[in-house]
Each structure stands twice: as structure tokens, then as C-alpha cells.
Design goal:
- The chain has a single domain, classed as Vaccinia Virus protein VP39 (Rossmann fold), CATH 3.40.50.150.
- The chain is about 35% helix and about 20% strand.
- It has twelve helices and seven strands.
- A seven-stranded mixed beta sheet has the order 3-2-1-4-5-7-6, sandwiched between helices.
- Helix 6 crosses helix 9.
- The chain starts with 7 loop residues before the first helix and ends with a helix.
């Protein structure tokens, strides 16, 4: 399936608007909510949130590929930013950690998702959780206003990843940090999969090589970069066969571990002023 003439950003926006309108079971049985449903597995990428404190099932569309809030070291009173907040799932978990005295901000560029998240927050009565529409590469936030950034299976969909990490560095306060779950590659994907709109919007074909992903983080000025968790992603055969022949699937299967979910932590260095105050 060729998509040479279609803007990837619009393709993702359209797909996630569709996801916002469909039920969770349909989302969870597909590839990050996109593409045809698989009969092999119920949920391909996302981790189990059911035992996580603060979890709200109505806000979980089954679109993630990790549990970034589990590793995010959020403390009471923090201001937390969730990039690609969807229906609000990770925001509500973060809100449990930061408490009513903190603040959680969700950014998503799909209007339908923002509306869904606001509706969920209203139902829960959370007045310290805010959802805004905006681009991750150009966030509508002031410099150094956030303590912690989280994101779940979103940045791989952003065309300009360098700008995204640069923006994260800008909005984080001195000494602030992020924990992000995302999809990366450990080898080249077959061209037919890279060209598939469903798999692009489904968090696979938009992914980059793991070493390039980590390099982007370091080049944005972050330090203490650590991969907190990594797991292989298995794409079921009944999804692959929509794009590959049987021989191509066998070849793809031979090289295991080509696609992985990683959760990465990194910190913004403390400013000189902050270091002097702490040493005093």
C-alpha cells in the first residue's frame, strides 16, 4: 500500500480520530488501535494497567506499548506532562502519583481525542488535569514549566523526532526528567510494512532504529539516559499477511527482535544557579 502523496501527520490524525470514535475492544485487538483486527491475540503491544493505582478503564483505549508512569518517579506536587495523551489514561495514573496538589497536562493533536479526554476528566471530577490540543514538535507551553514528561507509544509517530526531544528539553525545569515508552527497530523493516498506513498509524512503520532514537535524546541535551525496560513486539501472522507473502513472512520471522518496545529515562541537567543553591 503506497502512501507517497499523503502527509504522514494527516494520516495519523485521521486514524486516531477514527480510534477515538470506536470501542476499546476494537482498538485493543488491533495494532496500537490501527489496522485490521487480529484473531491471534487480543492485545498486541500494550502492557496491563489493571493493577496500576489511578487507572481508569474508560480512558484506556489499548493504544500504549508500556507503562511509563511506573518508571517516571513522579512525586507529590509535580507538574506532569503527557505527550500524545489520547483519552487520558496515563494522565489519570500520573494524577494519582502527583496528588490533588500537583498538576497534569495532556497534549494531543487530534481534536476528537482531546474532547474524549476532557469528558473523562469531567466525569472523574479532576480539576487539576488539563487537556490541550497541540503539536509535540511545537508545544504550546512556556519554558521550564514541567517537572516530569511521560509518553506512551507516541513519539515514534512524530515525523521530526529531534524537534520533539528539543521541545521536551525546553519545557522541563532544571533537573526535570522524562520516562517514555516507545517502539524502536533493531533491524530494517520490509518495505511493504513501512509503506502500510495502518501499521504506520499503529506505531510500527514510523519507528526508527534504537541507536538513532537514543542518539536523538542525547543530542537534545539530556543526560543519564537509561533504557528502563525493553520487550520484543510480535506482529501476528494474520496482520502481516495483509502486506507480505508467506515467503516474506517466514523471512521476517527468521530475524527475531526486529521490533521492540522500550521505556527510556533521561534527565535535564541542573542549571548553574540550581547547583549553587543545592551546594549552599
Amino acid at each position: 500500500m503506497k502512501n507517497d502523496t499523503k502527509d504522514p501527520r494527516e494520516m495519523v490524525r485521521e486514524k486516531y480520530a477514527e480510534i477515538a470514535r470506536q470501542d476499546r475492544a476494537t482498538n485493543a485487538s488491533s495494532c496500537c488501535g490501527a489496522g485490521g483486527c487480529s484473531t491471534e491475540v487480543y492485545n498486541i503491544m500494550t502492557d496491563d494497567y489493571s493493577s496500576v493505582e489511578g487507572y481508569q478503564s474508560e480512558a484506556d483505549l489499548g493504544l500504549g506499548c508500556g507503562l511509563p508512569t511506573e518508571f517516571a518517579r513522579i512525586t507529590k506536587g509535580d507538574t506532569v506532562l503527557d505527550l500524545g495523551s489520547g483519552a487520558g489514561n496515563d494522565c489519570f495514573v500520573a494524577r494519582h502519583e502527583t496528588g490533588p496538589e500537583g498538576k497534569v497536562i495532556g497534549i494531543d493533536f487530534t481534536p476528537e481525542m482531546v474532547a474524549k479526554a476532557r469528558e473523562n476528566a469531567d466525569k472523574l471530577g479532576f480539576d487539576n488535569v488539563e487537556f490541550i490540543q497541540g503539536d509535540i514538535e511545537n508545544m504550546p507551553l512556556k519554558d521550564e514549566t514541567v517537572d516530569v514528561v511521560v509518553s506512551n507509544c507516541v513519539l515514534n509517530l512524530v515525523p521530526d523526532k529531534k524537534s520533539a526531544f528539543s521541545e521536551m528539553h525546553r519545557v522541563l525545569r532544571s533537573g526535570g526528567h522524562f520516562s517514555i515508552s516507545d517502539i524502536v527497530l533493531n533491524g530494517e523493516l520490509p518495505e511493504k510494512i513501512r509503506e502500510a498506513a495502518e501499521l504506520y498509524a499503529g506505531c510500527v512503520s514510523g519507528a526508527v532504529m534504537k541507536e538513532d532514537y537514543l542518539k536523538n535524546i542525547e543530542e537534545a541535551g539530556f543526560e543519564d539516559v537509561v533504557v528502563q525496560k525493553e520487550k520484543p513486539i510480535h506482529i501476528p501472522r494474520d496482520i502481516l499477511k495483509a502486506y507480505l507473502s508467506s515467503a516474506e513472512i517466514r523471512e521476517f520471522r527468521r530475524e527475531k527482535g526486529k521490533i521492540s518496545s522500550i521505556t527510556v529515562f533521561a534527565r535535564k541537567a541542573k542549571s548553574t544557579e540550581d547547583s549553587i543553591e543545592n551546594d549552599a
